[in-house]
Amino acid sequence: MPKGSAELIAARRDEIVEACAELYDNLSFKEITIGAISKKTTFSRPSVYNYFRTKEEIFLALLGREYGEWAKDLMELAENPVSKSEFPSRFAVILGKRRRMLKLVAMNLYDMEAGSRLENLVEFKKVYNSSLQAAEKCFKAHFPGVSEERAQQFIYTLFPFLFGVYPYTEATEKQKRAMDIAGVRYQPYTVEGLVELLIRQLTENCR
After folding, report:
1. 62-83 CB burial, b ≥16 within 10 A, e <16
2. Taking each helix axis from N to C terminus, what angle separates 148-169 and 118-142, rounded to the nearest 10 degrees?
3. Which sign does the torsion angle of CA 104, 108, 110, 111 carry?
4. Is the pLDDT confidence value at 1 over 60?
5. Is there a contact between 169 and 189 (Cβ–Cβ < 8 Å)?
6. CA triplet 200, 171, 174: central angle to 5 degrees?
7. Which tens digit of pLDDT belongs to each residue from 47-101?
8. Average pLDDT of the segment spanning 176-191
9. d(CA 13, CA 15)
């Protein structure tokens, strides 16, 4: 166990997670090592292991942080509802702020979960659950007349959809070229544009 108060330990973990986040904005999951993360912190490589046993645990903590921030934004929207017609675009903007979350979910979720201890995975699932609850509360706040079944349909359509948003909206030039050669019809969308399209379809005829 690392030494220090709970606040100090949390601050040190946050520093490590933030270093990982900065690296992930420019490097791939495979390229990032614990050594590279430690160089962006005030800790030595062995010291990082006092807080995280694997690289995957650091990334899982980062994903948990992203889900937590998304949940906060959703709760704020739930507590300050907009018009039903404006809801899809506002929801899309909120999710558009979480590109790092979408990238992690699409590209590295299974690796992170497989390489993390059960207790770390449980902590992540708690935060993930808070985002599920926040998304459902946000939906019900704007459409209070919907049934529980319709609310569940919204959640179980939205969350699997998150796995595909990043790769579809962030295709590389090489991928685009391959699709062009293969004759694949590709309609470019932004994260916000694709999410808004989905939310409008899911909320059609909702009251």
Report:
1. bbbbbbbbbbebbbebbeeeee
2. 110
3. negative
4. no
5. yes
6. 155
7. 999 999 999 999 999 999 999 999 999 999 999 999 999 999 999 999 999 999 9
8. 94
9. 5
